[in-house]
Amino acid sequence: MFKKVLIAEDHQMTSLSIRNIIKEWTTTESDYVYDCDEAFSRIKIALRNDVPYDLLITDLSFVEDGYASTLKDGKALIQAVRSLQPDMKILIFSGEYKAELIRPIFDELQINGYVCKGRQDSQELAEALQKISEGRVYMPSQLSTHSRKRPVYQFTDYDLAIITLLSQGFRQKEIPAQLEQMNLRPWSLSSVEKKLNTMREFLGFTKNEQLVACCKDADLI
Predict the structure, then answer these.
(1) d(Cα 32, Cα 42) in Å, to the nearest integer?
(2) Residue 79 belongs to what H/E stretch?
(3) Which CATH class is domain 150-217?
(4) Which of 48, 53, 110, 204 could be joined to 6 by an S-S link, Cβ 3.0–4.6 Å?
(5) How is domain 4-146 classified at the CATH fold level?
(6) Structure pTM?
(7) Domain segments of the chain: what residues?
(8) Contact assessment for residue 92 and residue 75, using Cβ atoms and an 8 Å cutoff
(9) Rounded distance, CA 100 to CA 207, Å?
(10) Residue 181 clears pLDDT 60, i.e. is over it
């Protein structure tokens, strides 16, 4: 159960809806702000006063209101919060629904949940709050259904070896040496580049990170 929740959302009606859902779900105290700088300021003050927030619900994008902001968007806010209060639970509530963009956010920012704004968002938000309060991670339905919507591509062991190396942080030019150590042919850089290009084109991706996310979604790596 959360003791104190902060909502960072620049649309008043959305903020009200989130607070109503929290109120229905629990008696947890919730505060709200409309920009990232104010959210971070509230978090710092609460931490200094020894009454820290234990959950942040934030959007990813915020409309510029003419004032100079230090933290421009939800990602910047989350990164700042992680450096100040690493154990805070963080739930993103955003209109961004593309799985290939959502998945990297979990890895990059170590968030605890993501809910896409839409027809079922009230129910999903309640489910997310429940899961996160239990120490679990809430994955949006877009991630679980994403792989089924993609064209079927038959990944070989060679393909997955390359993608696994990418997921482990190896740069593309470093992969041939790793393949040679694994005795996986062909291990020339041109072969690796050609194979990655083939996979990206077939799946409609433009970046290797999207390939990695796709394979993680499908539990292939």
Answers:
(1) 10
(2) helix 74-84
(3) mainly alpha
(4) 53
(5) Rossmann fold (3.40.50)
(6) 0.64
(7) 4-146, 150-217
(8) no
(9) 10
(10) yes
